[in-house]
Input
Amino acid sequence: MDQLSLKKLFLKERILEVIPVIADMHPADVAESLRDIPLEIQVKLFAELSPEWAAEIIQEVPSEFGAEILNDLAPNKAAEILQQMYTDDAVDLLSRLPKEDAEELIALMKEDGQEIKELLKYEDDTSGGLMATEFVAICEEQTIGEALALLRQQAPSAETAYYIYVLKNDRTLVGVVSLRDLVVNPLDTRVEAIMKRDVIAVPEDMDQEEVARIFEKYGFLVLPVIDKEQKMVGIITVDDILVVNEEEATEDIHKGASIAPLETGYNYAGVWTLFSKRIFWLVALIFVNLISSSVIAAYEGILASVIALTFFIPLLIDTGGNTGAQSATLIIRALVTGDVKLFDWGKVLLKELLVGVCLGLVLGLAGAALGVFYSSPMIGVVIGLTMILIVIVSNLIGMILPFGLTILKLDPAVASGPLITTIVDATGLLIYFSIASWILKL
Amino acid sequence: MDQLSLKKLFLKERILEVIPVIADMHPADVAESLRDIPLEIQVKLFAELSPEWAAEIIQEVPSEFGAEILNDLAPNKAAEILQQMYTDDAVDLLSRLPKEDAEELIALMKEDGQEIKELLKYEDDTSGGLMATEFVAICEEQTIGEALALLRQQAPSAETAYYIYVLKNDRTLVGVVSLRDLVVNPLDTRVEAIMKRDVIAVPEDMDQEEVARIFEKYGFLVLPVIDKEQKMVGIITVDDILVVNEEEATEDIHKGASIAPLETGYNYAGVWTLFSKRIFWLVALIFVNLISSSVIAAYEGILASVIALTFFIPLLIDTGGNTGAQSATLIIRALVTGDVKLFDWGKVLLKELLVGVCLGLVLGLAGAALGVFYSSPMIGVVIGLTMILIVIVSNLIGMILPFGLTILKLDPAVASGPLITTIVDATGLLIYFSIASWILKL
Output
């Protein structure tokens, strides 16, 4: 059945006809088909599904929506569904519910609730907030045969079965064996003979962006999480890192346009959220812009005597802003991905100086031609010289600002396109009027 | 040994002392320590290492550098190293070498070279370009015991052993079993009894960004790749997707500032590359900017009679540009991640209209206050009204342009901050002078 017919069935609330259709679908596809269905109909659907099935689907729904669904279901049903989820997904949903509702559900989850309560203490964007507590652990004295028997008995889901962690009695992490190692070695081999000892593990309070970098660098599928006493407390799987990376990229892109992090997808953000995430920088930039207004006011006389100079104001300040936004964007991204380090500043400064000169010469020539064409040869000289200087200076401002912010331990992304444009505008106008008054002898 | 002492050993070319130090390090850490070491010293190191070890390290080096190392090694040694790599990594390196050098190495790789030659035909940024040909395949009639025996005999590396693909004799993909399924079921079970039949596979020519979306949506670790006749040709692993996602995010961020894709990291890009990736849009935008110049020229008389109007030009056009850049950035990212679909346009238009009105009222009030303060009440009215209109219109332009580009099957990212700013400037000036001439009766 196609998406559209499924949607029609949903909207007519023919839930009992929907169930056999979604039975053949991957939970991620079911979650996608729920995208435009009113919440009350979704709740009716989940009330009819088994807790296991409902859990599989809700794990694939964006968590702000998943939380709403759980909140509208009968508390007993919601608790049953949460018990069927990976602990990391359950925690993610519960942390979005009103505190009393979350506590009610945790109480209904009995012993599983205890574990969830522990996990809820971690910050959302740390390794502790990402980890699940489902993993398979053995002792180093055990044999491969015993380990395989343990696996058969616990029957963990596929993604948690690939690595088996070797722990001491006090839960200190001492080694790791892969499922593949268990399969290709003789059954009576002792685990300590084949385990890898230098396990790379992350502390429970590491920032999620740093965790993502470790996954990328080493190409891991799963990373163990340890507490301050080296005791193993959970695992992070790479599928969660894909989501983290997408969120972090979106945040960086938004910051590049002076938008505060949305925390939800655009689709789920209301008018008020969008407004409040955008208004701060727009107002702040107005005040930075007052410098430009003051520069123009100071040179009012020059403008009044050669009104043609005003024609080129947008051309000059926009080109400066565009150049500065380009270099700032390149540098911020390179700093964020670790492609450029702080101590590279000298090399980068030289590179951007050279790039700026090349860009300046080409753009200056274009500017001079336009000046001659639209006005006079003298104006052409003014525009050409101004353009060269503005481009070189803007390019360097775009490079220096992110480095400077990083040195001051501030987020380099504050040097967004809009901020650079605004700063460069004032600088550009100052360059423009100085050159004009010098060459035109005003 | 710390990074700095290791670097010193390297720079003194004491290779035989370096080897025991790096023997204890993860290949990814060794690769990182090579970052600032001159190429000729790196080549001396790899000449001393076993092909297996060299392959492990070179796989972790950015591929533009890995290719340089291979090219400077003796061809026999380079071919031996390539034979030890996963096919996808070997192909990535060979595709960056001059054609004759690559062909020489492929000839030296004997039968492995044939497979590489086939893979080199795929485009870099498609599933075929990402896939490796190392995977384990069995028939549906086999038992779990036979499958495990096959695994013991082939002893595939960990990341390729997690899924075993069930193929017919003509290599058509019919099912998949996970290593976990093999371990938890009785040895005499036939594969067909436990295999999952609806395998999600990707065609060999799918764009890598789409492949990444599938990994994210379903949370897969490995995806099989099939050709046009449904025959299985390779697998893509999630660690490669992490790299693809980072590259794609960087590209999107660069596009947002009108920079053409760099194809290498900033650190590896030379002055000429940086110049050439930036100059096109900077020059193109100058021509778009001529519209703004013409608008000012057309209203020269108004400016000459009320010179104070020029003070507010940067303030008004910058605020418009910033607002438009914000909405364009939000919409482009939402379209790219699939958070907003094309058919959502009505909903998004309404949302951005409302957000634009809210932003416009606040910014208009601020603008009016500044106009009164710096000039006169009448100018305050002009600035306030202009600001409201510019913000609402810019915000909608920032929303409509990415949607329009997507409808025309163009990349929505063309509507970058700089392009939006430039378009919005001309529109803003037109609004400004129309309102000024109407209110001030000029």
